Amino acid sequence: MLELKGIAVSNGIALAKAYCLIEPDLSFSRVEVSNTESENTRFKNAVATSKLELQEICEMARHKFGEEKAAIFSAHLLLLEDPEMLSAIEVKINEGINAEYALHEVSSMFIAMFESMDNDYMRERAADIRDVAKRILAHLLGVTIPDYSRLTTDVIIVAEDLTPSMTAQLDTRYVKGFITDIGGRTSHSAILARTMEIPAVVGTKTATKTIKHGAPVIVDGTNGTIIMNATEELSQYYINQQEAHEKEKRDLAQYRFLESKSADGYTVEIGGNIGKPEDVDTVVTNGGDGIGLFRTEFLYMDRQELPNEEEQFAVYRAVLEKMHDKPTVVRTLDIGGDKNLPYLKLAPEMNPFLGYRAIRLCLDQQEIFRTQLRALLRASMFGNLKIMFPMIATVEEFRAAKALLLEEQQNLKNEGFAVSGTIEVGMMIEIPSAAIIADLFAKEADFFSIGTNDLIQYTLATDRMNENVSYLYQPYHPAVLRLIKTVIDAAHSQGKWVGMCGEMAGDEIAIPILLALGLDEFSMNASAILKTRAQITKLSREPLMEHIEHIMMLSTAEDVEHYVRNHLVVYHQ
User: Residue 369 in 3-state DSSP?
Assistant: First the structure.
């Protein structure tokens, strides 16, 4: 039996076999061969096996994701039938070198040729050749490449890390949980795990080195514990824990149709954060009062080109219609940091989280931004749309973004499109400079949404993805709490509302403080909505407010947590 500890990022218990997404060793050497006929046969067999594999994957992608995603694999199949490339490899083999080296020589030549072309589409084909060559090479070497798109049994994914696009593709019919070596509670893969309601533990450092592929694994996403090859007695204990967790979820169902109101009658909104249109169903199922954050960047990921206006319009319309007249806050494109679009070919940066990202990229590449704004404005007729700009640091940025929005609104009206006249335009507060001058922003924005995931890391100068400094990621730090109070007070002085879409909004320690401060909207992963509503209905705001002055004078995050546990949660009816 093996036990590991990591950072618990998504509650629940999962028991299944480990599926290790570890890059296999595909190293090889140049070898002189005398039997070239046998070597050619070996190569042809590897190509044939790759072809059968890709045909199966292509059909599965077509069924699960539609023709667009399946087209990627169709292109790979065409490469496996390319006579120019295949014959060039055969020539190399006939010269007396092994198939692996011949494949490498020819594929490298084609990759270099495509990468040197002026046409973007042709340059992108280099990646297709690289993927196909890797698949053939793996079959030549007798090595299995992990491919979770073909799962048919329950598994727990084990990986060094999972990119946002990889996580978004996980099929929750079979993926019951995941474990990673790196990451933190607010990494995007962790956030998506909570959205999909699958247990996850990250930041284990050694999971990929110690957990064996196919071994039975238990993931405790509540306490951050992982167990491989557990005893029968321990397995039964976790099965009982899993059943208890499911019972708690059933008990919380009674709060689905209740108002989001404190015990003494203070009304708030509890909304859900989503990354893709399908996530709306989970928000509705959990009784969300609206959508407090639609992360639109996931519409741009895992594809070969930017989504056009019609594609985006269809998605935004579908989301708004599903939410009926409930508020839907859509964040404009927030690419950068750990969310990249390969087809944009952005230059590498020393510190991408402080670099060319989000509103900075959109104001610079206005064609991308205008396309999204047009799609949102056209969709506004189908629901209660609110538009929010991310990563705003200066008043000038907000004014520039809003000016483009108003310009496109007028353009659409000139073209005969109907646009709602009641769209609220707000901004994320996630940079300390924006929080400090919130009083100035409150005169220009219709609302604020506090993005605590970034606000905390920027305030405390700590990389929220880096487990080595995770101890500094402190939501209850006095500096963070003071900034939040500054933002809420500034907005309310101008009659504007304030939401919070960071993970802190669903934190049981933070909730009494936020309620006392007067936060208007709490938005979180859908699985936390009912638990948050249950907590708020048991709290009385008036008595909580009496403690705010004292809390703001506490010196450490630990002091704050201790004080809340001992004083604030007792106020309920």
Answer: helix
